[in-house]
Amino acid sequence: QVQLVESGGGLVQAGGSLSLSCAASGLIFSWYDVGWYRQAPGKQRDLVATISGGSMTEYADSVKGRFTISRDNAKSTLYLQMNNLKPEDTAAYYCTAISSVGPKLTYWGRGTQVTVSS
What we know:
The protein is mainly β. It has strands spanning 3-7, 10-13, 18-25, 32-39, 46-51, 57-59, 67-72, 77-82, 91-99, 106-108, 112-117.
């Protein structure tokens, strides 16, 4: 059974930092492209950042220069370092894994809340 479990969310003041983690189990982590999406109340779920199995990264324009995505295949863990947080970063953050080998499979975590106060 595949599980993605996010952690590290919380309440922080604008300008502060948070580090999110996503621990994966039940899959061969290195075979998956993984990433972070976020969803604010009443809005659609949007891409934040992705990292491929070969560690190629992609970021939403709104977070470039402030967020850094990384992965540790040995620990089957995905990370998101968020610096200089802004109130508009407030959202539930979700971890996702998409297979890059074999059938196209997509998995989601349950999310972790990030709240940035002004």
